[in-house]
Amino acid sequence: MQIEKDIVRIGFNPLTDCASLVMASVLGLDRKHGIRIVLSKETSWAGVRDKLLTGELDAAHALYGLVYATHLGIGSARRDLAILMNLNRNGQAITLSRRLVDEGVRDGAAVAALSHARELRWAQTFPTGTHAMWLYYWLAAHGVHPLREARVLTVPPSQMASNLAAGHMDGFCAGEPWNHRAVMDGVGVTIATSQQIWPDHPEKVLATTADFVRRNPNTARAMVAAVLEASRWIDASAANRMAMAEIISAVQYVNTGKDVIWQRILGHYEDGMGRSWEDAHSMRFHHEGAANFPYLSDGMWFMTQQKRWGLLKASPDYLGVALKVHQTALYKEAAEITETPIPASTLRSSVLMDGTTWDGKDPERYAGSFDIHM
Known about the structure:
With 374 residues, the protein is of the alpha/beta class.
């Protein structure tokens, strides 16, 4: 198998869920599969998108919704993108300002009551991304219209805790370790985890352009194989997760204390309001391959939410678009190389926090089923 491009430049944002890309490089799993991963630390999701489109990056740690928005021409020039694999499940959160907790706001119902009385300022990391969708879904499930009863800002993930401390927002939704950073700094509390919104939800993906996959299928397959092996290594033991936390805490990666990363990586949660628990749905990087398979239904869900909130003006061909974006055949080849289990179906069923079931079978009906929408 001839590798078309042996050096691949992969962009990432400083978040815990970039870990499988970092470990693929650090452990030499990229070289095992005939490529060399050169990591590029980025400062925003918009920057990741733009560098993918110009070719400055070959691939990237990316948001599901960013990929679909770009593919459908929402907020940028339309360009065919490709999802090679899922990088992780779970492990994001909604953080509320300590100031509001001191006013007695300690749960979703209290947030809703306050939101009906005054406009709260929330931040997410990209207008069409996962964090915007988790935030909107959570607010709407509590009876708050996120686009009419809130002011929503876009802030890079690593700047969330500092902006919360400065009083620029009342809360935010972002990936770890920035929610735990806010708790440790005493400036915020975890009012909800993303896995409470959707247990075992899809999160980041390994994305590239459709053109890259067409020109470099063997390179793309090698990337997936290397990252699958790194994902398996991370999930193999608590010791591996601790070692990973130590490595990614370095300045060239996440640039924060390993103590900010490791607790939630091991499922140890505290919310900053006196509650602690062991989370059965904490961040997973492999989960016997289930966390990595690019389920078509996962991608379609983000399109249903983009339609719900008016980001998509008309209903897309949900399944047709997902089939085009998700490189399931290439993924299965890499899974076979790495002896990674493959699920029986490209669709999966989940029950979200409001009791609704999402199984990907009737996305248009699902998108139109919500009481709160644009």
